[in-house]
Amino acid sequence: MVQALNSALDTLLTNDPDTLIYGEDVGYFGGVFRVTAGLQEKHGLARCFDAPISEGGIAATAIGMAAHGLRPIIEIQFADYILPAFDQLVSEAARLRYRSNDEFTAPLTVRSPYGGGIFGGQTHSQSPEAIFAHITGLKTVIPSTPYDAKGLLIAAVEENDPVIFLEPKRLYNGPFDGRHEEQVKSWAGHPAAEVPEGHYTVPLGKAATVREGGDVTILAYGTMVHVALAAIEESGLDAELLDLRSIVPLDIDAIVESVKKTGRCLIVHEASRFGGFGGELSALVQERCFYHLEAPVARVCGWDTPYPHAFEWDYFPGPARIVAALRKVMEDIDGEL
Amino acid sequence: MVQALNSALDTLLTNDPDTLIYGEDVGYFGGVFRVTAGLQEKHGLARCFDAPISEGGIAATAIGMAAHGLRPIIEIQFADYILPAFDQLVSEAARLRYRSNDEFTAPLTVRSPYGGGIFGGQTHSQSPEAIFAHITGLKTVIPSTPYDAKGLLIAAVEENDPVIFLEPKRLYNGPFDGRHEEQVKSWAGHPAAEVPEGHYTVPLGKAATVREGGDVTILAYGTMVHVALAAIEESGLDAELLDLRSIVPLDIDAIVESVKKTGRCLIVHEASRFGGFGGELSALVQERCFYHLEAPVARVCGWDTPYPHAFEWDYFPGPARIVAALRKVMEDIDGEL
Amino acid sequence: MRSNSLYIPQPTARPGDNPGFDHLAIPAVGETRRPEIFDSESQMRDMPFGLVRVLDEEGQAVGPWQIDVDPEQLRAGLKAMVKTRLFEDRMFRSHRQGKTSFYIRSTGEEAIGAAQSLVLGKADMCFPTYRMLAWLMARDYPMLDLVNQIFSNRDDPLKGRQLPTLYSARDYGFYSLSGNVGSRIGHGVGWAMASAYRGLSDISIGHIGEGTSAEGDFDEALTFASVYKAPAILCVTNNQWAISSFAGIAGGEHTTFAARGTGHGLPGLRVDANDFLALWSATSWAAERARQGYGATLLELFTYRVAAHSTSDDPTKYRPKEEAGAWPLGDPIARLKQHLIRIGEWDEERHAAMEADFDKEVRQAVKQGEAVGTLGKSKPPVSEMFEGVFEKPDWRVLEQRREMGL
Amino acid sequence: MRSNSLYIPQPTARPGDNPGFDHLAIPAVGETRRPEIFDSESQMRDMPFGLVRVLDEEGQAVGPWQIDVDPEQLRAGLKAMVKTRLFEDRMFRSHRQGKTSFYIRSTGEEAIGAAQSLVLGKADMCFPTYRMLAWLMARDYPMLDLVNQIFSNRDDPLKGRQLPTLYSARDYGFYSLSGNVGSRIGHGVGWAMASAYRGLSDISIGHIGEGTSAEGDFDEALTFASVYKAPAILCVTNNQWAISSFAGIAGGEHTTFAARGTGHGLPGLRVDANDFLALWSATSWAAERARQGYGATLLELFTYRVAAHSTSDDPTKYRPKEEAGAWPLGDPIARLKQHLIRIGEWDEERHAAMEADFDKEVRQAVKQGEAVGTLGKSKPPVSEMFEGVFEKPDWRVLEQRREMGL
Ligand SMILES: Cc1ncc(C[n+]2csc(CCOP(=O)(O)OP(=O)(O)O)c2C)c(N)n1
Ligand SMILES: Cc1ncc(C[n+]2csc(CCOP(=O)(O)OP(=O)(O)O)c2C)c(N)n1
Ligand SMILES: [Mg+2]
Ligand SMILES: [Mg+2]
Question: N or C terminus: which one in chain B shows less Cβ crowding within 10 Å?
Fold first, then answer.
């Protein structure tokens, strides 16, 4: 996925002189996860450069550049460190178009490695998507494969509105199904690891049906798509798996269609459960599919604790917890707590 | 409610030398909403003082003071301006106890006027409770009456963990039922406007049953409690109204008990709908009461737009919208969108 | 063990006290030197403690910062200031009459917007505070558009989405305002970086209040401006007061706000901002510096907030009523008028005629705006609430709009 | 019209280039004066551009900052530094062996924690960065507790909740670390304010990296420290590099980090942080100033990051391998050792014996820690994941714990 993202950025820099990249360590060094490797050398100093350690300043200057007409792509080194830029993204980027009646807009893209599974401890593992999803005026994208990562990133940068682009860091170098005891896999051979050269897009707001099935619908994004797939196999159920790909805009039609078909729904995400994006998904599903539901919409998420370093695999909603939840969702009655 | 909050702060400053108050304009002037009026004069310069316009700095220093053993009470002038302090509250205040294994804790209280209804435009009207509710380690309290405001504020300050205390500014000087065309009411004569002198608490995590009823359960907090009550009267339904009072901790037992009794549930909040706290409430209700529900759990919220100045009353989820939603929740079938 | 000794700064005077500004060391006219624009910051470390002044007590332009300005431009500045003051006083009254939800005046600070608007070019962009109406007045922004925005009526150019006075006027070099303070100063730096990136010679100028300079946003903007040598001017408008808190609560007891530049390697100049010519001169100097590639400059615009903070405020609650009158650097309109008269380019008659003209213009604009409608009596179509969230609306907004029957 | 001219700072040398520090103007030993602690900041505006130094090339203590330090204390400092270096090198190897998820070394910067830990009192509180292990070593924090924390094993004092090296040690005057940089410097100021509020004479000392000084948190902390005259010391550890970006990306091309004090009315001193005695002297000066009620001081601790940024980093990718060797201010351990030998308070034999002792101590602690278990082989009870979210758990955590069968 790192190469796919790098290729997306390379394509963007090549095609559009108004795109530029900056962030902590992204220039000469090429980023702590190597996503911008080689881009400064190829495209020049001012196209991909290092920024001060000031996420607020990075976001603020990017908004100014975007208002001027550029398409800045900024990297926040870890999604945990977006918070110092949160006010800029919410009070400024998200609201600029609305309040100025289209006079000024903020077509910027915030890339950030996100999620857990790398023993990064509390501040290198969090999944803050829910706090962005609630903000009117922001779009939030989370890819799960190299192919999507490139296509979605190009689409995000070409949007005329601000986009938060969260990159599941546990997927950077290979798919991860949550079986952490097993050997690390690489992307080689994965069907969605083939990434075309040059320009293509994957549209925001379109979910991908990763697996069709009739028993139950699973809604997931990012790393959890792979974990859910493993859980489906383990469960033996004929589950349908939707990879949402972007949570704003959300592909509500695909969700409703699938749940109306299966009559059951399980939502999985890494972030803590309470107030997480799963709540919104659950609410939407029961609002729109209530009379089709045969069991409560269920959620499997991170626990309601900070991300705990040594207990990473106890906290992480791995295949075992998903399988258990699937089983419960399939029981007709008495699923209620 | 302003006097009740002032009385709570006065009581706290009087009883506990470790409490102190600071924030923008709270000292000599007594706060832009007069909540701290007279406290500096009565208790001394260092007990209630002005702070630089730096919400991040206010929060950061308060965490340091709290770690030292004080109980700082900070005012953020409008909840819209909490965002510059968001990183401090989330990455630091909320996580200090956990990560230091109880060595350092952050018993601080963040007071902030919140919500709309005063023609304050986009940045003096927002309701950001959802982004706090998702943060493990933070408690979030929202009173709806003078009596509760005082008792909850004292309880919040006495908590040994950080509390976000959101004060519905439209309720400062009187109850407000959403009928904005009508003359402004004062608190005088309202049953919950009687505020005892001195120390008392209202515990966090206990909802109040504002009205008992058998038809449908309404979950609300802050200003919307009064709006919902007006809507119930207008609807003629026998609705049960729960004032959650604190959303973390949440009184899940009261919610489940009520919805199991009525079989229907409507959630109302001022904040934008998508990703709002109503999503979590809806998810919890259907997870725990699925087999008792006779209609989908419904939500009436602010629209998914920024807070629009001139359209305040179009955006605000007033009685008419609540009545319409109540009617829909009461229909047995075909409620699905 | 000390007894309780947390130090809390206090202003020199509160209501009932005699106002006084003796604690402010104000350098004499002509005393502060004028460095070359290509000098490095390290050669200018005295500047943050000087004060750029040009007009003396008699209205003469003197000293190293004196420069020749076309009298036509000076008159344009005077007009912008007078127009601003008349307009604002009228709008303040409109608020008292319930015609708008909010108003904020710049009384005493009008020279800033007026001078800088005229010094800078059409392609330069200002990232203003809410006290910069004179910028728009100097560029003849249509008064009726202002009134409609302030009344939030059907013809509000911002479609009812924004609080009164929080204008946006791209064609006039005026960036979108918002109610939260401080968070746009970094946009100005980004804008300047974009200008350099694109090889343009346009610059940006950004403003922040002395109170708001305590926000981290401010230093972050200074850091980026310094690191990338952004062609920008950053201004701290030090009008001595935030809302009820004096400059000492923002750190002003111990140093100047211009000195914040020193820690970022940016030259910091203090400027008498009630002196139109000093503003003109210092802004030209900084603009030239930026355009020639020497990077950003920090200006502390030294002035006094004469009016209430906003219509929500009553300053007699926290400072002596007489304090504004005691401000040692006078009134910017009176001072520029005195200068123009002195150099034979203006007279009392023309001044009175101009005031009468503007008074009429303001009345007429207000009347026209009132005819469209005032707060709550007229507003843009409600569908405007749902527009502009994104470039294209998504299903949420479409559904909700439908739910409202729009 | 300029062609594309966005300026991007570049370090003087990249891999393959000859390293060099000629661009750094380093004042000679003894050159920088020592003001009185009661002097106001305005009397010290030259100080941010000086460099507090005490030890000369021969290991002699000279100049105005020279003060008498009990040789016993000097030896304690030397020991803390040597212990730190040995321990860190060992832990670095443990990481390569997969025994921990993360490690970070302070090589070349050990004098900071060692000197300041010994200068300050038991009731003072340090708000450290992750390169301050020497503080704990100087106060004899149990080495086995460090190892257990680093291995995240059953006996981890932080119960497995925190990344390795992000210690918390209240009894040792060491505030809880976290992975996000910069956000605790303001806590130190708040702590100092609390100390003043309570009438105590305790002070705080806070640290931030030169790279991180670009975060708004830093200036916000300086503002509060200045406004309320907090009894605090704030330190910018300028080790020339953030991760792969050099100090110029944080604004260091045009001024010093000590100069950030000037804009806040706080004295700023630059200190040779590879000179144990300079650190001792400057820290004592600032501590005395704070305790006597003259307010906060900003120290720029001038040093060089010899090791990789962390175990996740490979510095040969972005700077010359030989750069550390070219650092003009030497190694702090070698310099203090030289001084102690010179004044007859130490010798090579004792030094070798000490190293051997510590080597044994480190080995033994690691062995004991390994016996408890290393990453993934041992951890605290899983129930600890659910503890400490709040003082008392709420239903969510109780239910989830039950769901896990705990
Ligand atoms: C982020 C934020 N915090 C607080 C406020 C409330 N507020 C509005 S104006 C103001 C005072 C600003 O003072 P100053 O920066 O000196 O500007 P002035 O009004 O004097 O021009 C405050 C505290 C706000 N609007 N935004
Ligand atoms: C808020 C935040 N942003 C970014 C990072 C990633 N990061 C960790 S250390 C570091 C470099 C810090 O450099 P400096 O402040 O100079 O300290 P040093 O490592 O040199 O001691 C960065 C960018 C972080 N941990 N926290
Ligand atoms: Mg001001
Ligand atoms: Mg560094």
Answer: C
